[in-house]
Design brief:
Helix content is 10%, strand content 40%. The chain is built from three helices and 16 strands. It has helices spanning 2-20, 140-144, 196-200, and strands at 25-32, 38-46, 70-74, 80-81, 83-87, 94-102, 108-111, 134-138, 158-159, 165-168, 184-189, 204-207, 216-230, 235-251, 260-268, 273-280. The strands form three sheets. It has a six-stranded antiparallel beta sheet.
């Protein structure tokens, strides 16, 4: 009788542990190229994950057809992988620094499930485990080819909270011919300086763009300074304000700019940085 009671108790304890254990978070980023080929990257939060390479979670080098469409990122051994797994104790920070692909045909469609950012089993106990409020796609292609996403924070141009896919055509008309893959990255996390209003409001606009000379800026968040750089990264000029200033039809000294593509970085009093590109044609 005692043996049966102990067995039942053990089963009950195992059931409680199983039902209360942290469920793995498996986030897929699906790619489909112009020929219909598909591949997927996975971002995983798991209680068993470590900071090393977890072969059981799929972080090792995958076997793939070198003649087919493949998307991959680097693991800690600087080798290709399709999975990045993080332990839950570092939640909500996660990123893929550089994503690459081979044998793809434009256009490429990237898809994801936005509902997974709000999964009920994710830690959500501020301030120790704040909820994710940043989920973005970044990279040269995202910025220069797709243009500014009015819902996205920082200089990133695709907000994964407000969309579930992005269409990526080949850059055939732009002055830079930027490839989609190479520095493509995905970043998830929490920024204490971001609010709901920040995520749904367009913060900066430049007009006219392209311009033959005159350039004006609107920014609805107080700006402390700004920097204008060439596409190469070389600084063209900068300006700082004695007190934070909301820019309303603010004219920048366009006389100093030659024909070409430029990036303007605006720094706010709330420690945010907004980027926008513009073109001068003289």
């Amino acid at each position: 009788m005692k043996k049966k009671q102990l067995t039942l108790l053990a089963i009950l304890l195992c059931t409680i542990l199983i039902t209360t254990a942290q469920q793995p978070w498996r986030f897929h980023i699906a790619f489909e190229d112009g020929s219909g080929q598909r591949d997927t990257l996975w971002m995983v939060f798991d209680t068993t994950a470590t900071e090393g390479i977890d072969y059981q979670l799929g972080e090792g080098t995958p076997e793939y057809d070198p003649n087919a469409f493949n998307v991959f990122m680097y693991n800690m051994n600087v080798d290709s992988t399709k999975v990045k797994a993080y332990p839950y104790w570092i939640y909500p920070t996660m990123s893929t620094d550089e994503d690459f692909a081979i044998n793809y045909t434009y256009p490429v469609i990237i898809r994801w499930d936005t509902a997974l950012f709000h999964a009920p089993y994710l830690p959500n106990n501020p301030p120790a485990n704040p909820p994710m409020n940043v989920a973005i796609i970044e990279g040269s292609y995202q910025f220069f080819v797709l243009g500014f996403d009015p819902t996205a924070p920082y200089f990133h141009t695709t907000n994964m909270f407000t969309k579930d896919s992005v269409f990526c055509p080949e850059d055939t008309n732009g002055p830079t011919h930027v490839p989609l893959f190479g520095d493509l990255g995905f970043i998830f996390g929490y920024d204490p300086y971001l609010s709901i209003e920040t995520l749904i409001t367009k913060n900066i606009s430049i007009f006219p763009n392209p311009s033959s000379g005159l350039i004006k800026i609107n920014c609805n968040i107080p700006v402390t300074s700004y920097i204008v750089t060439q596409i190469s990264g070389k600084s063209a000029f900068q300006e700082a304000f004695h007190t934070p200033k909301i820019l309303n039809n603010y004219e920048i000294p366009y006389q100093k700019l030659c024909s070409g593509m430029y990036i303007i970085q605006l720094f706010t009093s709330s420690k945010q940085i907004f980027y926008e590109k513009f073109i001068i044609k003289k």
